[in-house]
Amino acid sequence: MGMLTLAPEVEVLARFGRALADPIRCQLLLALRETPRHPSELAEAIGVSRSRLSNHLACLRDCGLVVAVPDGRRTRYELADARLGQALDALRTAVVAVESDRTCAAAETEGCC
């Protein structure tokens, strides 16, 4: 049996979906949609430890959704493309408009992007 090859656009959407599958990563993306931030600001804003935050930021970097930008002796994180913020807004609005009183069945995810 041959291995399934995904079209590039399908692969990109699958990575985006895997990134959104985790509530902490969703919070990070929504926070970065507002403005670029340093890790300490992000950890405080979403209420997670720096080490946990670091793992999620690494995942989002590996998925190509955020970039780390040197900022003096610190690193600032921002969305890799401003259109990601627009996509998050559109997706959030569309999902809420469809059925705000329903929740998705819990799905097990393996690893990260």
Automatic annotation (TrEMBL):
This is Metalloregulator ArsR/SmtB family transcription factor. PANTHER family: HTH-TYPE TRANSCRIPTIONAL REGULATOR CMTR, TRANSCRIPTIONAL REGULATOR-RELATED. InterPro entries: ArsR-like_HTH (IPR011991), HTH_ArsR_DNA-bd_dom (IPR001845), HTH_Metal-responsive_Reg (IPR052543), WH-like_DNA-bd_sf (IPR036388), WH_DNA-bd_sf (IPR036390). It comes from the Bacteria. Pfam families: HTH_5. Residues 6-99 form the HTH arsR-type domain. NCBIfam families: HTH_metalloreg (NF033788). It comes from Streptomyces tremellae. SMART domains: HTH_ARSR (SM00418).
